[in-house]
Amino acid sequence: MARLIDIKLPKAIASALRLSQKDAQRQQLRVLKKLLKKARFTAFGQHYDFDKILLNVHPAKAFQQTVPVHDYNKIYEDWWKKTLDGVPDVTWPGKIKYYALSSGTSEAASKYIPVTKEMLRSNRVNYIRQLISLLSYEHLPRNAVTKGFLMLGGATDLQKGAAGWYAGDLSGILARNRPFWFQTFYKPGGRIARIKDWNEKLNEIVEHARDWDIGYIVGVPAWCQMCMEMVIEHYGVKNIHEVWPNLGFFVHGGVAFEPYKKGFEKLLGKPIVYIENYLASEGFIGFKNREDAQGIHLILNNNIFLEFVPFDDKNFDGEGKMIANPEALMVHEVEEGKEYALLLSNNAGAWRYLLGDTVRFVNKKRSEVVITGRTKHFLSLVGEHLSVENMNKAVELVSNEFNVSIPEFTVMGFPHQNLFAHKWYIACNDEVDPNALIKRIDERLCELNDDYAVERTSALKEIFVQILPEETFIKFMESKGKLGSQHKFPRVLKGKMLKDWEAFLNHG
């Protein structure tokens, strides 16, 4: 780690690293004012009179009363679409050079999320903060600290737009803009990173695996697990540490790691440290900054202003769509144990933007949260209020109990015999009794969720299961053009994605 810390950093980054972590409310007000000042001469800032908001005695409240909330479709149609034609100063000063392509897990068409140089700089600051926070870990695998970073992400060979911008996975954009001092540590290197075909990229990584001294693996759990399995098989070894003996860290985010952990640890020769971060296409929102933390520490002092909308029937309909004027709280107004949807304003021109994630505060004093799911990824056909967090935890408990690996699963709800039912599709390559497995998952869900337990005695009549090879889930993602990188399989299937999944199973 000394090699990283001793490097002379740019003044802007060094200054950001020294920002105080105290007083969450003050930090967020400072961030909001900074964003408003920077964007006050943009078309968006002029339309919503940012100057007047800045002069208000309570700028945060004035901001919430003046600027409407936006989901992607609204802000894209009203504002961001213009930037794709090269129009400058729309929602952020200057032209947008990069767009992160994000289809999430429920949308078919790609979303174009603006990525600015200011946002890339903020992300770099937060990566360095996260690395420095490792020094406080008591059980630190020191041999791994200064070794290579294998980053499994999107291609750095981005598509170019007519107006001169570039678009691709955020991971590819970040890798393309990696700082010069990181070159020594970065794997798989520029040539392999440019490869767009995911299978070709994995095969190249496998071929060169023995040439690298990897200390960190960074990426989405499912694809990192697949990569390690391929390396182990290719070299005929028992575990990944026979190829990378100094592997000590796995940095992950975007999905809950619990369902993958059992299968992941079967590939290891010794324990490693799991580091969770919260990196979205719209910004680096938080990371686990201490070893015994229950959740992710929200970054409140680096160009992201957060609001928290209670995830309840008052603010969202049954399909997870937010109302026009929801109740929105600042970080000092939230309560522990309650679930909130995130609104985000950032230094790339997102304003009161519904991120789509739901979180729960586990430590308000330290601003620590756990990600509980997505606003549109939950099941509540009859009031069971089954969250992705509930599902992940039940699968983790049962996979440990049965000693099987369940790397993927998804759930759907449907009418059944005048009442309702759930159906689980579970990826498991181990031998397991489907009836025993789903019975235990059902029992665990009843223990974890009182509403679910009540509905299982009334309107939620049956729980069905279909066990599938892991390859089925991978092939479906491939058929949707979402193989690899940051793409995640949806935990709840609804609408078009459900129809496509059923058609794939019937004809795929």
UniProtKB/TrEMBL annotation:
The record's Gene Ontology cellular component field reads:
cytoplasm
GH3 middle domain location is 298-363
* A UniProt-annotated Pfam family: GH3
Q: Which domain of life is it from?
A: Bacteria
Q: Which residues form the GH3 C-terminal domain?
A: 390-494
Among the GO molecular function terms of this UniProt record, one is: acid-amino acid ligase activity
Write the protein's name: GH3 auxin-responsive promoter family protein
Q: Which species expresses this protein natively?
A: Flavisolibacter ginsenosidimutans
